[in-house]
Amino acid sequence: MNFKHMEDFKTYTDILSRCYPMMEIRTSEDKQEMIKHRERMEAYDMVSHTAVYEDDQMLGGYISYALPMNVYEQTLPSVGVGTLAVDLPYKKRGIAKKMMINAIGKSREEGFPLMQLYPFRPDFYRKMGFGFGPQLNVFRVSPDQVPYFNEAEAVMPLNENHLEDIKRCYHDWAEDHHGACDKQEYEFRHIAAEHTHTVGCRVNGQLKGYLVYEMKQDSSFKHDLKIIDWFSNSNEAFQSLLTFLHQQKDQVSSIVFPTFDDDLAFMFNDPRHESKQLIHRIYHGTHERGTGLMYRIVNVPLFMMYIADHSFGQQTVAINFKVTDSLLNEESAHSIQFQNGKPQMSDEHLGHGISLSLDIADLSSLLMGCISLQKLLDYNKADADGNHDEIAKAIELFGKPTKPVSWTFF
């Protein structure tokens, strides 16, 4: 079994059509379009296709994306792994595991401290050391439930002619949000798509927010408005986009509103889900919630070097991390002195520090701000040993995590 840079997109497309029926690669025309798409993507420097072979037979493959990422206001190079597939006759031979080990090895060699992916099964990739990322909330409300602002600026329609303004607006947003990735040219393809529509708000001539959506037919005269992308860099733009949604009440039944904002229900006077169902006793359902993006730190010292200027809090505490990685059959130790919350790596064990034992998946979630240390301890996902007061400092240090947000899909 050996790994090669992929050139045979036809065989890979055939494999995808069998492994992922949801991709709807059914006809010869579908397959030709997918082959052309893969060829177009391969032309980008940040995209790489890898295939695994046994003799001359392709068994599977995956795609790597180099994704510059905002991690605590520092630009950190990350790798996104997507469309990993093993052809059906070769399953249960550990090929997916070998492909992931290959991807981790390449990431380390090329100087990437972090990997991310969207799982087809979260439990499968958690066993491979990927920790859970941010949880996404999806509200489904009527336009009447969306706030309306009388003084809000009117939105304007946008199209591919406004692409540079849209890119600038997104990049301004990404610079202010931990976890956001730098979108590449192809990621703005929704702007020119026939089935999507875009509106935006300008403040003093500068685009400060935009909304990409599509209309889904509900009945003859009623539709659902599904939000695909939503970014705002000012309160004025936020109010304008909300007012636009409210104004669709004469023709739109429901607005499908994805968000990482855990407090969004407080924005509505009536936050109830359109189903109007009770979920427990007298608690009204407000939204659906799901897990998706997962993170894996593949080089802890390099990751900490990139975020050396970030302060997790005001505490000064030494932590000796003992990290288990069952995929690579590794156990590693990383001693870090946090000085007023800022991490400083130590080459030696810190005798005055506490010991914190956990899996690489949970360490990745912890350091990316997806979960607090107290919760990991409560859920028996981590074990702390040492002076009680020092453990309390460590818990407080990781007590109010800055949760990542990402609207990059691959």
UniProtKB/TrEMBL annotation:
What InterPro entries does the record point to? Acetyltransf_17 (IPR041380), Acetyltransferase_Eis (IPR051554), Acyl_CoA_acyltransferase (IPR016181), Eis_dom (IPR025559), GNAT_dom (IPR000182), SCP2_sterol-bd_dom_sf (IPR036527)
Give EC number(s), comma-separated. Answer: 2.3.1.-
Is Metal-binding included in the keywords of this UniProt record? no
Q: Name the domain of life.
A: Bacteria
Residue ranges the record marks as coiled coil: none
Give a yes or no for keyword Transferase in this entry.
Answer: yes
What is the name of this protein?
Enhanced intracellular survival protein Eis
